[in-house]
Design the sequence.
């Protein structure tokens, strides 16, 4: 495991200078494909538009958590979590179930499909899944798992 100092050095090597252009405005149709965070500083404010940045480290080594922009998916999810914690917890549990259950139902079906490949069937034999769901239900479970994954990803954890 790398020390914090080594991690900072490696991160500093990846920093590229900006081109002087301001960060593009966060639009209403971008909450899933783009993240926007901000940090309140005494002297200035810097907009941050990256996918996996959650902390700001100053030159003296102090770290501050970046706040999600209110219009972003993370900001809306954080507001729901602070205003209605019980509902947020219920949504979190529901989304976790909607990721795990389709996965558990899909794995045996994928194993059966893979065992039908002639080279795999010859080497390992065939497998018959105990689960045989109609195509529409598999599609619905896939869509539910995808939307639940987006919800899980929008949580600032």
Sequence:
């Amino acid at each position: 495991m790398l020390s914090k100092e080594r991690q900072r050095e490696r991160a500093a090597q990846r920093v590229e200078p900006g081109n002087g252009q301001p960060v593009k405005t966060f639009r209403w149709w971008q909450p899933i494909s783009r993240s926007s965070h901000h940090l309140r500083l005494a002297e200035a404010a810097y907009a941050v538009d990256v996918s996996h940045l959650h902390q700001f480290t100053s030159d003296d080594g102090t770290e501050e958590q970046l706040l999600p922009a209110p219009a972003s998916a993370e900001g809306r999810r954080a507001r729901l979590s602070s205003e209605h914690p019980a509902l947020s917890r219920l949504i979190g549990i529901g989304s976790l179930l909607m990721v795990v259950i389709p996965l558990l139902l899909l794995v045996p079906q994928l194993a059966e499909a893979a065992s039908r490949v002639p080279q795999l069937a010859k080497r390992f034999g065939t497998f018959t899944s105990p689960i045989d769901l109609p195509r529409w239900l598999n599609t619905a479970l896939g869509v539910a798992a995808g939307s639940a994954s987006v919800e899980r990803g929008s949580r600032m954890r």
Q: What stands out?
A: The first strand starts at residue 37 and ends at 40.
